[in-house]
Amino acid sequence: MTTNSFTLTDEMREQSIGVESEPVSMAIEQGHIARFAEAIGDDNPAYTVGTPETAGIIAPPTFLRAIRDIRPELPFEIPFDRLLDGGSDWEYFGHVRPGDTISAVARVEDIRERTGSIGQMLIATIKITYRNQHDAIVATQTSTSIRY
Amino acid sequence: MAEQIYFEDVSEGMELPVEVRNPTPRQLVQYAGASGDFYEIHYDRNFAQNTGLKDIIIHGALKNAMLGAYVTGWAGPAGELRRLTVQYRGMDYPDEPITAKGHVSRVYQEGSANLVDCTIWLENPDGQQTTPGTATVHLPSRSG
What we know:
The complex is a heterodimer. By secondary structure, chain A is mainly β. Chain A is 11% helix and 36% strand. Chain A is elongated. By secondary structure, chain B is an alpha+beta fold. Chain B is built from 3 helices and 5 strands; from the N terminus they run βαααββββ. Chain B has helices at 25-35, 45-50, 60-75; strands at residues 15-21, 80-87, 98-110, 113-123, 129-138. The two termini of chain B are 19 Å apart. β2 (83-92) of chain A pairs antiparallel with β2 of chain B.
């Protein structure tokens, strides 16, 4: 159990909001898209052979979760080791296709402290912006992560 | 070929067809491999139970993807997903049926775009909404 001694000060909050991760890039591969679609149980042909409507193969929603370890470094130590995923808000602006290279940067949008049924929690809102090789934003994902 | 739903066919309150999925531990391993999320609570029962869970649990992100597949399947080949939100309110376990449900909450135009908001969710076998969410899709018009 963690002790209740951690306090998120206004100064720590201010230093955290706006902190960005290093960019993380991933080359998008056709086989990876097909494996992901199979794993999520989606047999939509847009993900394996392409359709006239999608003008070729595209990646399914949430595929960009496969770009991992996009972490902004908080400027202080967090005394909690357990992590819960609270949810996600995806916005899509363009398709992701095999051959693309997607670069992701995460930014701390908000951080707050709360005490709930699982004890003291640190709740961070993180927005990941995904850009393709033409520097066009293809998607954003705003997620809530709970450390406790 | 999957059927296309058109903007003119949709009205507020309309229900999306119910879909039942049966994720297996094998599917969770497939998802771990495809997504790169190898947190052991999703495939190692001893590990999961040592963290206080009753069994291995379905990845939240897999449930997010299942809701994405649910709403894009409904929107048809020419439908486009613009936004997908999801909240993880409860754990779900493999080898139990998980049911996707939803309804149309708003039908509107933004500029020339025909947009439909849906309220969607996953239910566990007790009928609890473990994974509520929303989606915005762009639908084609019959008039082209």
